[in-house]
């Protein structure tokens, strides 16, 4: 009898709530992309490059650089460019809370840490760590911007079915396993298998209906890995790496691929063979869902992924109703604005119904864009104002429902009087946008440049400074061709007017190698660049 295919919500293919889910992997020696599809739409992108140096999940023997009692934290050297941050709440102190059930202490891949414990009382960090001492730590958050990696001493090792926690004594079950009888059975099974020495476990979502044989096999493998880590730590000199987390492909197979997915499609034969061997050992029933893509059209082109990636870097996201959202990342938060656009609700008499339709579309798209862009931190979405509290609640429920599919921890708060929904999303690594781009050299990352009239006024002020200094006799001004064209068409008397006001011989030339809002002041016969003497520095 063939296996019954179920989705994450337990629906059969063809039923109204069935959600088709696929994983696409496009691999080359230079980079590997992973794409998570839901009903034919891209919802999550993963990228792995050899030069990226991903740290999350890696375990180090670190050396304490500084202990700061004032903030109850320490900086630990793990051999990275910047020292890692270790808060007192992330030291080894297990509370034995069996009700804290999730896929891992970090709620994602089992790499510990979390802010929920900040309010509890802990022994002072200065009594637990000292400068120059060593400590085993695990990276829970990549370095982002000027901040170093976030660390925890509450080490956890994620497996396919279990998360092994050597410094814990509790047994947890993923909260996504909601049948009480199954939760009780899994806890009892874990207690039968666990050794007498204190060891903690969390049974992951894919561990539902886990049998004793698979449980024991994975537990022994993770337990053996931890013993190896301890041996490496005892024989190594800090700072040093003592255990590496699984990379993209093996991590995707371990953490994501299950019977909730219809297919895992790979465009590289060697990678396909490796995945096939891995799946055969891990869960042979899934082997027929691993497929090799051999069409002449590139895999990502076939599924329209490249267009979706381009969209992830744009400000605008279009809605099915004709409206759109604008996504604006800032230093403090990400703001999202919802607009009706072309959607006027033709044929609808009630404007509130038109607004509700747009807001519901936007709620779904906002949740998708957060996953697609891998946005982290604070998010504020400005929905169109609605008079009805019932409609506000519908929009909030819609966004919470779709955020529930997100692997990262998310939380959405009630709609405010101004129509705003405030959200938080777990930040583990820099967003895809930050990873693949850098600040524009032209605008300094602002996305704006000075207009030609503004550039000309800056030139004018700089020439007045040069005249007042009295060190120059002749200056050639070089500007971008667009600025030169503006002078010719809009201010043809610019030079003659300026010559009357300053005692300088002046000439204006265009230079296509300059940026749109850049100019150069070249003095004397040798045309020495004196720009920095007389121009004020641009902001940014």
Question: Can you put this structure into words, describing what you see?
Answer:
- The protein has 540 residues and is α+β, with helices and mostly antiparallel strands.
- It is built from 13 helices and 25 strands.
- It is globular, with a radius of gyration of 29 Å.
Q: How much β-strand is present in the residues?
A: 15-25%
Structural class: alpha+beta
Give the terminus-to-terminus CA distance.
66 Å
Shape from CA axes?
globular
Major beta sheet summary: 6 strands, antiparallel
Unreliable stretches: 1-16, 99-103, 105-116
Number of extended strands: 25
What's the tally of helices? Answer: 13
List keywords for this structure.
540 residues, alpha+beta, six-stranded antiparallel β-sheet, six-stranded mixed β-sheet, 13 helices, 25 strands, disordered N terminus
């Amino acid at each position: 009898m063939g296996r019954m295919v179920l989705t994450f919500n337990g629906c059969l293919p063809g039923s109204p709530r069935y959600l088709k889910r696929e994983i696409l992997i496009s691999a080359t020696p230079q980079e590997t992309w992973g794409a998570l599809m839901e009903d034919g739409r891209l919802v999550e992108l993963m990228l792995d490059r050899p030069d990226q140096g991903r740290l999350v999940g890696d375990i180090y023997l670190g050396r304490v650089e500084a202990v700061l009692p004032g903030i109850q934290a320490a900086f630990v050297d793990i051999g990275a460019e910047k020292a890692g941050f270790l808060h007192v709440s992330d030291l080894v102190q297990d509370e034995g809370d069996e009700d804290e059930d999730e896929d891992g202490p970090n709620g994602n891949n089992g790499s510990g840490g979390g802010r929920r414990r900040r309010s509890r009382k802990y022994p002072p960090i200065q009594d637990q760590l000292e400068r120059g001492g060593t400590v085993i730590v695990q990276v829970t958050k990549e370095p982002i911007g000027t901040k170093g990696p976030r660390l925890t001493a509450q080490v956890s090792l994620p497996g396919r079915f279990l998360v092994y926690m050597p410094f814990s004594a509790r047994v947890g079950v993923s909260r996504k396993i909601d049948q009480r009888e199954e939760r009780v059975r899994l806890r009892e099974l874990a207690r039968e298998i666990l050794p007498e020495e204190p060891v903690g476990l969390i049974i992951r979502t894919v561990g539902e209906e886990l049998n004793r044989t698979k449980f024991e096999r994975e537990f022994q493998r993770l337990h053996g890995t931890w013993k190896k880590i301890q041996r490496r730590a005892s024989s190594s000199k800090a700072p040093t790496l003592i255990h590496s987390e699984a990379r993209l492909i093996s991590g995707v197979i371990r953490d994501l691929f299950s019977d909730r997915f219809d297919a895992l499609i790979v465009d590289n034969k060697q990678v396909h063979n490796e995945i096939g061997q891995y799946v055969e050992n891990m869960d042979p029933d899934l082997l027929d869902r691993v497929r090799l893509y051999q069409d002449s059209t590139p895999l990502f082109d076939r599924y329209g992924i490249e267009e979706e990636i381009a969209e992830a870097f744009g400000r605008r996201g279009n809605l099915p109703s004709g409206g759109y959202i604008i996504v604006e990342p800032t230093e403090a938060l990400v703001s999202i604005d919802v607009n009706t656009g072309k959607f006027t609700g033709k044929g609808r008499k009630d404007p509130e119904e038109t607004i509700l339709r747009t807001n519901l579309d936007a709620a779904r798209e906002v949740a998708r864009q957060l996953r697609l862009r891998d946005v982290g931190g604070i998010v504020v979405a400005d929905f169109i104002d609605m008079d009805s509290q019932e409609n506000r609640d519908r929009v909030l429920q819609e966004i919470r429902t779709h955020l529930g599919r997100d692997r990262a921890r998310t939380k959405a708060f009630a709609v405010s009087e101004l129509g705003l929904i405030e959200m938080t999303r777990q930040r583990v690594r820099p967003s895809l946008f930050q990873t693949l781009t850098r600040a524009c050299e032209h605008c300094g990352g602002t996305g704006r440049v000075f207009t030609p009239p503004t550039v000309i006024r800056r030139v004018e002020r700089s020439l007045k400074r040069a005249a007042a200094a009295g060190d120059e006799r002749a200056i050639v001004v070089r500007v971008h061709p667009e600025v030169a064209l503006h002078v010719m068409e809009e201010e043809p008397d610019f030079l003659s007017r300026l010559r009357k006001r300053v005692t300088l011989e002046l000439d204006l030339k265009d230079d296509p190698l300059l940026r749109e809002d850049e100019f150069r002041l070249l003095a004397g016969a040798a045309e020495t660049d004196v720009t920095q003497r007389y121009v004020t520095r641009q902001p940014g």
